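Write out the bound-state structure for adenosine-5'-triphosphate.
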Amino acid sequence: MSGRADAVLWERVKTRLRTELGEDIFSSWFARVEFEGADGASVNLSVPTRFLKSWIQSHYFDKLLGLWTAEVDSVRRVELIVRGAVRARPAVKVEKPVVAAVAASPAPTFIPASSAAPVMAQASAARLDSAGSPVDPRFTFETFCEGGANRVAYAAARAVAETPAGRPTPYNPLYLHAGVGRGKTHLLHAVAQAARRADPSRKVVYLTAEHFMFRFVAALKNQSAIAFKENLRDIDLLLIDDLQFLQGKSVQQEFCHMLNALIDGARQVVVAADRPAAELETLDERVRSRLRGGVAFEISSPDLDLRRDILKSRYAIAQSQNPGVDVPETVIEYVAQSVVSNGRDLEGALNRLVAQWQFTNQPVTMNSAEITLRDLVGATEPRRVKIEDIQKVVSRHYNVSKADLLSSRRTRTIVRPRQIAMYLSKTLTPRSLPEIGRRFGGRDHTTVLHAVRKVEEMMQGDQHLAEEIELLKRMIDE
Ligand SMILES: Nc1ncnc2c1ncn2[C@@H]1O[C@H](COP(=O)(O)OP(=O)(O)OP(=O)(O)O)[C@@H](O)[C@H]1O
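---
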């Protein structure tokens, strides 16, 4: 195996994982796995956290290896590496200074959420308190830029932080949802820190869903589950981040008990996730229903004013850390106009420009900025495709009615478009097989799986069909 061929194989393995595990599980555990290379019998993949590594190793390792071996006979091992360890290598490629510089940008320093010590701008090392995940001291309300996209979420978060213990806000649980990089984590960390500052005796715990799972599974293993549960139920303010990663029946049940106990006991809960609760399909219905009983606010993508504000406040910080740094206002405006996706990309864009200045010791010009930011400019979040859109486009294209697609009729002229529509629903939406089955006239999930496999198989032997499906995808995307 080598070069491009490896990457193609990895795409195929991912497609199979997606089909076999369902979009939700795939995006929870594999969306952040990256292919690092292959070396004879060994395939190297990287993941962003140690937790993800151990979870994949214990739950999906055999499947991963099996799928690789099915592609390449000689593969005997799949190595999972934690990305920080891979990327932090000092291998600075001269032709790509920007990437190296971004990797070299300072890592956040952390303080524990429930530490009684005042929040300091520069905590020296990452520490973990007994119940929570680390909180980044830079993520405060003061460094969060407010705008139309996040105004309501911001106000609700502030209200939570300022409301004394024992008197939860009317938003309980408060559910914040948004696509990547729009500031959910920043807001949760800001709440944790402000609440601590307002009342150091208040028990505030910030936990990522991954960390909750990890702690719960570890507590079960060493038989300290009861202490773990009691510790969590004694909290005044609980902040749960990245709820979409909460997996596993017993973990979800425990989470649900905790949620009920806290809310019924007049404690405040705040939850953040990348989509509305109703769309978290792998989440236990009882948890979803409890979340629906609270108040949900969405953070939408930043408008131009907010993008400008985020960039300006980040640049002010960069100036204080890098005396003499020179990114002209026109370039900042260019970034605000053209990097439209989210706060993380804006921050990444600015980091690159600052790194470019550090590497070249030259003021950043419009031309050089355009080259440096080529891949970020104009990037938007993919539009969410709905099953109805797919059904509409497929029925129009094959001249069958939507009722036919959903019916039990088995004539060839209907079966084929129906299978294609199911295949497209599986590959273009995050819907699970049972959900797709329900949306296609109440079919069983195995029927959907059969359709997906059948279409994949037909596409391999029929170039014409493969092109037709590509065309349908484009039509659905329009
Ligand atoms: N309104 C904002 N003001 C200031 N910084 C922001 C804002 N929105 C996002 N950011 C910055 O963008 C980066 C990404 O934000 P954050 O990690 O909070 O996003 P997220 O919504 O939790 O994304 P993900 O779901 O990918 O974890 C952070 O560095 C954050 O400080």
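---
Residues 387-477 form a domain with the Chromosomal Replication Initiator Protein Dnaa; Chain: A; fold (CATH 1.10.1750.10).
The pocket of adenosine-5'-triphosphate is lined by residues 139, 144-145, 150, 178, 180-186, 274, 310, 343-344, 347 (CB under 6 Å).
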